[in-house]
């Protein structure tokens, strides 16, 4: 039996993920073990194609491992029924997708309030909170804009605001600063850090952004579908200025 610590909000145990592609099988995750504590800010670093987004999809209950298990609050999420899984995705986890996944025919505000509507929050309350969240990401003046009327960085910020809609315990952020300029990227990082420190939100972020490492409690280095090493911020083996090209 695994030695599970009681305050692990996320535990990934022996996760393997294979995809079949025609007659070939692609081995993407090759046995991932991770424990993440409540309120921790963890960055997952790894080269393109190493399996970060695939791992996020497993942790977020968006896809199922080929083998192994993901536990949220020590519950094996593969055992949840459709309603419980929907609840987990809607209320417990906020997702910031690498490709934003905001809805093109909806305005910025409608994108942010949609998860609240799914959660049964009354319209007026959802609207007020949606505006407050857009203000947090500096887009209150753009609330009526639809995605094609926003820049890439602004769309990213709508995705960040949306991820916060239902006060999630966990935020899964896949390259949340990937499309942002330096200043906006720093704002988003500050916001995530504040959520982790002041509200105890657990942040799990895939990133190539060195600014992100500075605020992380731990960095998980993933390479070719395996965890290569896990370091606390104070023991980072790289100086942030000279990260090896391999990890970019
Ligand atoms: N549905 C799928 N079918 C087949 N192969 C897939 C599928 N999804 C991902 N892969 C493969 O899995 C590998 C890991 O992909 P993943 O998106 O997890 O990488 P990543 O670490 O997030 O990369 P990046 O930094 O570029 O976002 C890639 O080689 C990709 O081609
Ligand atoms: Mg990815």
What are the main properties of this structure?
single chain; alpha/beta; Rossmann fold; six-stranded mixed β-sheet; four-stranded antiparallel β-sheet; 7 helices; binds adenosine-5'-triphosphate; binds magnesium ion
Model description:
- This protein has 248 residues and is an alpha/beta fold.
- The chain has helices spanning 52-59, 82-92, 108-118, 123-136, 152-163, 182-199, 210-215; strands at residues 8-21, 24-37, 41-45, 67-72, 75-76, 93-96, 170-174, 202-206, 218-223, 226-232.
- It has a six-stranded mixed beta sheet, with helices on both faces. A four-stranded antiparallel beta sheet has the order 2-1-4-5.
- Helix 3 (108-118) packs across helix 4 (123-136), helix 3 runs parallel beside helix 5 and helix 4 (123-136) crosses helix 5 (152-163).
- The relative contact order is 0.17.
- The protein binds adenosine-5'-triphosphate and magnesium ion.
- Magnesium ion is lined by residues 52-53, 98, 174.
- Residues 52-53, 98, 174 line the site of magnesium ion (MG).
